[in-house]
Amino acid sequence: MRFLRNFLVLNLVVFTNNLIIAQSSKTALNEPSAVKELLNKKKNNNTSTAVNDKFKIQIFYGKSPEAKSALSTFRRMYPDVNATIVYTNPSYKVMVGNYKTRLDAERNLKLIQKDFEHALLIRPGK
Question: Residue 39 and which of 30, 70, 101, 111 are 20 to 30 A apart at CA?
Fold first, then answer.
C-alpha cells in the first residue's frame, strides 16, 4: 500500500512539473529584412543552378597546364559558350556549356567534336 501511494505521489509530481516548466508555443522570430533578402537570393541562385546544370560537355581530362591550354583554345574558338575547369582528384576536367535538354547538348557536342575529338556528353551530379 505504501508503495502504491509513493508511486502515485511521484507521478503527480512529474506530470505537474512538466506542465509548469513547459515552454509556451507563442514564440516570435524577428529577423532583419536583409537576412530575408539574402536567403531569397540564395534560394533563387540554387534553383537556377539546379535547372541550368542538366547537361555539360567535357572536352578535356588531364593535368592542369594542359587543361588551361584546352580552356583557352576553346574560349578562342567558341566565345559564346561558357567554359570552366573542374578539379577532380587527381586530374582536371574542362567542362563547357550549360544545356537544359539532351537534344541541345548533343547538337553542340557534334560541333565541338570536330575540334575536340575526345569531347563527351555528361550529366553533372549523376
Answer: 101
What is the pairing mode between strands 120-122 and 55-62?
antiparallel
How would you class 122 by CB atoms within 10 Å of its CB: exposed for 0-12, middle for 13-18, buried for 19 or more? middle
Q: Give the separation between CA 59 and CA 121, rounded to whole angstroms.
A: 9
Burial of 33 (0-12, 13-18, 19+ CB in 10 A): exposed
Looking from the CA of 14 toward its CB, the CA atoms found within 13 Å total 6
Q: Return d(Cα 67, Cα 24) in angstroms, integer.
A: 60
CA distance 105 to 90: 27
What are the average pLDDT values for consecutive 10-residue runs of the chain, which has 126 residues? 74 62 67 82 64 79 93 93 90 91 91 92 78
Which residue's C-alpha cell is 560541333?
A: 111
- What does pTM read for this prediction? 0.56
Q: Where are the beta strands (DSSP E) in 2-119?
A: 55-62, 83-88, 91-99
Count helices and strands in the chain by DSSP H and E runs: 4, 4
